[in-house]
Design brief:
The chain is an alpha+beta fold and about 450 residues long. The chain is about 55% helix and about 15% strand. It has 18 helices and 12 strands. The chain has helices at about 1-5, 10-35, 40-50, 50-60, 65-95, 95-110, 115-150, 155-170, 170-195, 200-210, 215-230, 235-240, 255-265, 315-325, 345-355, 385-395, 400-405, 410-420; strands spanning about 240, 250, 270-275, 275-285, 310, 330-335, 340-345, 370, 375-380, 425-430, 435-440, 445-450. Strand 2 (about 250), helix 13 (about 255-265) and strand 3 form a beta-alpha-beta unit. Helix 10 runs antiparallel to helix 11 (about 215-230). The model is unreliable at about 1-5 (pLDDT under 50).
């Protein structure tokens, strides 16, 4: 009976169809690896080649999501067809009656197992069908083709490019639905991850729990918190404001320039024409060493380095650090939305956001002008940056984000909360922090007394 069935033309046709479908499955699986293993160098070579096959490959890779959807849909159709054809072949070559006979023999040999020969036979038939087809599909339709594709990326992509373009047109309605649905799902998942992401407060709490007690634990916690918040800090938040920039006019004499250098102690000083909105470049004090004996009328202007790095106020300092490294710069001019000079930022300012204040022999003992009156009261200069205030009083730099708007200084914060230039002894409050204006003139708030919330 088995021999007569195997000679059945229908079975032979289905066997041929099974082999063809298996080859198609292997080609589709291997094409997925081939197309998505093409490197940038390969793409440049294909663009220069300008052959028909190269153009087809580039056209397919122009829409990678559609290409992947086409391959997956096609491969699923082929695999389902393989399962259907293999089921027919298995029923022809291995009838259920044969499996029932095997089951009857097993039950006679092992004794009563609590199942009928018919049930056990059908279970054997189903198991052989599933295991057999799965092994063939995995080995011949997935593993071997993908191994081959890894070593024959471009040739295989050329071979499959025409067929995949045809399949892309054929399955266009299905791929469009799949790609659009995937985009929507991806956006929702992205928003979900963002919404459920840990807040900075939660991260800071985790850091405090993680770092062990010890002599340097406070510094370690502070540095870790700074690293977490590093990517959220803008150039505007750490810059030296325009009013505090030490600069020199290009019309200044050599003696005036040397006086500015000696008084400031800075190694790099901006040079401007007319005003700070027209920065010409930066003078490096090391470039002046060989000319210290020159007369007062010495023309120092050719020593100015005209390569100026301009930085928008909103630029994140992690990106600015990369730009400093790439451009090999240590200083940048921060500009506002109108192109005017808003301030100056240095590499040292960026590093201080991680490791804290860096002092050298030229720095004053206290760079931030403040006075600690007692455990809860501080006296700050109005121009003190909010970030510096937060570090001094030991709170998170995001503490006042809900009321600060665009303010960067403590005076700006008070102005935002008051809504006008306050009078002396005006008090504003937020989240238990009290700000009392102690000195003010017609143009700005000069000094502020900050009172911390009462301890719980």
């Amino acid at each position: 009976m088995f021999l007569s069935v195997s000679m059945d033309p229908v079975v032979i046709i289905n066997l041929i169809l099974f082999l063809v479908l298996l080859v198609c499955s292997g080609l589709l699986s291997s094409s997925e690896v081939a197309f998505f293993s093409i490197t940038v160098t390969d793409l440049e070579g294909l663009k220069d080649e300008r052959s028909a096959s190269a153009n087809r490959i580039l056209k397919l890779l122009d829409k990678p999501a559609t290409l992947l959807a086409t391959i997956l849909i096609s491969n699923n159709f082929v695999n389902v067809s393989i399962i259907v054809v293999s089921e027919f072949i298995l029923r022809s070559l291995l009838p259920i009656a044969t499996c029932i006979g095997w089951a009857d023999w097993i039950l006679l040999s092992l004794g009563d197992l609590g199942v009928s020969p018919d049930g056990l036979g059908r279970a054997l038939h189903f198991g052989l069908s599933v295991v057999g087809v799965t092994m063939i599909l995995v080995l011949m339709g997935e593993i071997l083709p993908k191994i081959y594709a890894r070593f024959n990326v471009i040739p295989l992509a050329r071979t499959m490019s025409r067929s995949l373009l045809i399949l892309a047109r054929l399955f266009r309605p299905f791929t469009a639905i799949m790609v659009n649905w995937t985009d929507v799902l991806e956006k929702r998942l992205a928003r979900h991850r963002m919404d459920e992401g840990p807040s900075s407060t939660e991260i800071n709490s985790a850091i405090e729990l993680t770092v062990t007690d010890g002599q340097h634990s406070v510094k370690e916690v502070d540095i870790l918190k700074r690293i977490v918040q590093f990517a959220d800090v803008t150039a505007k938040q750490i810059m030296r404001p325009r009013t505090d920039i030490v600069s020199v006019d290009q019309e200044a004499t050599f003696a005036e320039l040397l006086h500015v250098v000696r008084e400031s102690g800075y190694s790099r000083i901006p040079v401007y024409e007319e005003d700070l909105d027209h920065i010409l470049g930066v003078i490096y004090t090391k470039d002046l060493i060989n000319y210290l004996q020159e007369s007062e009328d010495f023309e120092w202007q050719p020593l100015v380095r005209t390569e100026v790095l301009y930085v928008p106020e909103s630029k994140k300092i992690n990106d600015l650090l990369k730009e400093f490294q790439t451009e090999r710069r240590h200083i940048g001019i921060v500009v506002d939305e109108y192109g005017g000079t808003a301030g100056l930022v240095t590499l040292e300012d960026i590093m201080e956001e991680i490791v804290g204040e860096i002092k050298d022999e030229f720095d004053d003992e206290e760079e931030v002008n403040y006075q600690k009156l007692d455990e809860r009261n501080y006296l700050f200069d109005g121009k003190t940056l909010i970030n510096d205030v937060c570090r001094i009083i030991g709170v998170d730099t995001s503490t006042f984000d809900d009321v600060r708007n665009d303010a960067d200084s403590l005076a700006g914060l008070v102005l935002e909360m008051a809504g006008m230039i306050p009078r002396r002894d005006t008090v504003v409050e937020t989240n238990g922090f009290f700000f009392r204006v102690t000195k003010v003139n017609k143009r700005r708030v000069e000094e502020i007394k900050l009172t911390l919330p009462e301890p719980v």
